[in-house]
Amino acid sequence: MPDSAKPLALNPRRNIAREVLLSLRAEIISGQLQPGDALAEPVLAKQFGSSRAPVREALIELEREGLVQFELTGRTKVRTLTEQDFDEIRDARVALESLAARRASAKWAPKDSAYLEQNIAQQAKASTLAELSRLDVEFHEYVLRLTANKRLLTLWQSIRWQFEMCLASTHRLQETLACKPHQITVSSHRHLLAALASGKPEVAAQKMALHIEGSMEWTPSETSTADHPHGLATETFRR
Amino acid sequence: MPDSAKPLALNPRRNIAREVLLSLRAEIISGQLQPGDALAEPVLAKQFGSSRAPVREALIELEREGLVQFELTGRTKVRTLTEQDFDEIRDARVALESLAARRASAKWAPKDSAYLEQNIAQQAKASTLAELSRLDVEFHEYVLRLTANKRLLTLWQSIRWQFEMCLASTHRLQETLACKPHQITVSSHRHLLAALASGKPEVAAQKMALHIEGSMEWTPSETSTADHPHGLATETFRR
DNA sequence: TGGTTTTAAAGTGTCGACACTTTCATTCAA
DNA sequence: TTGAATGAAAGTGTCGACACTTTAAAACCA
Question: Tens of pLDDT along chain A (239 residues)?
């Protein structure tokens, strides 16, 4: 049976685990699931109408992304981010992105400036903080991708969601306060872009570090500065 | 039944998955499992006398560590590292470790120099390349831990095994050639230590970058420079 | 009533099974 | 003899179940 044109189509295998992952991640970042909330495999499985296996896989991935925390008892909770976590994430970004800036700057092309200028233009027009931060992340991801270093990108992606969680939670406070207007973000990216396109890798790297440090000032959050033991899995596997 | 002293003992839950992980990782790094070798869940499960569930978890973790590769068909193989992979790993290390050096240098204490000097002394006495590289990794991990940044450490650990795979495979070639004697490694670490202890974070960071670049020169490996599509999972989940 | 013990509910780690897909060797046609 | 069709074997993604542990509530005694 010579099927109608099926040369390399590769039947996509079903992947409930991925759907669960995306769904849970979105709920955590949006704040629908709050830090400290319990994530029990059986109840999630029932919610998603699946068995526990895909849920379990999704939870393991979320733990690696830092959005979820395995207790020593084996139970799973939505992670609570403290000020120290915030600092760590900033530092990790500085490490990865300043090297990315150095490498990207060395192979800069006009189209890169064009793309990022367009991104900044959209930032200026953004009407919500959510949209603004989406564009912010896109800007930085673009630089990461420019390096064409898959590992650098993978490492960055593995803290990306924690970063977005920080962004979203501070935004939930600032939405009313409006204490950090678009203008700052926009002009900061404009300066950064200039450095990236300057053809001086050292300068680009340094400006990137400053940009990140400037954009990630800690704002007191609604999350309790609880005394939880801070257990980002440094050892492999649960518990 | 007031059990004899059981205050916070926390019964360790069984964890076959971890044993499988450690075992497979060791086999891959030692070369017992060669790049390209198939890793089928049912056969591994039979080998370990377990079911597929723990094996599956271990494979997912190994994929995140970069030692294993999921094909688009869902099959799993031991990863083949090419020269480009080697370069990427080096660059990722530069990113993470030069920042680590900067931060560690800023909070340097005499005991840190003492510990690392002892490490170097052991390097000088090392009788096998395997032992030498164990000490090498320990040196660098110590600097990472000094930063007290769990995320930086986690990121570093997530490429650590790929790095060790590189080391081991080049060592398997050099064991006979002996083209990179201890002395180079030892003196390189000695200079690095001096920079770390110098109290100048900028210098420490720069020296660390140079040290890593110098220590990771590509040596043509036995692994075919195959035309495999290089798929380090940039998207979440298998396939 | 207050504190301790008992008991049930909830949850994790693992298991074996099923459905479907891919792979590979064999058969068949040209 | 070579190449396409076919069938069985192997493999993945998911499922429901079981044993054991932890958690919470209920029962109990003082």
Answer: 333 333 333 567 789 999 999 999 999 999 999 999 999 999 999 999 999 999 999 999 999 999 999 998 889 999 999 999 999 999 999 999 999 999 999 999 999 999 999 999 999 988 888 899 999 999 999 999 999 999 999 999 999 999 999 888 887 877 654 555 678 889 999 999 999 999 999 999 999 999 999 988 765 444 444 444 444 444 567 65
At A215, list the tokens. Answer: 């954009």
Instruction: Give A76-111 as a 3 state SS string.
Output: EEECCCCHHHHHHHHHHHHHHHHHHHHHHHHCCCHH
Say whether the CB atom of B53 is under 7 angstroms from strand D. yes
All structural domains of chain B, each given as residue ranges with its CATH number in brackets, are: 16-78 (1.10.10.10), 83-215 (1.20.120.530)
Nearest CA in chain A to B230: A150
Cβ atoms of A78 and A68 closer than 8 Å: yes
Name residue B68's beta-bridge partners: B78
**A73 CB-to-strand D distance under 7 Å:** yes
Q: Which residue is nearest to nucleotide D5 (CA to C1')?
A: A1
A&B contacts, CB < 8 Å:
118
Nucleotides on chain D that have an atom closer than 7 A to a protein CB are 5-6, 10-17, 21-23
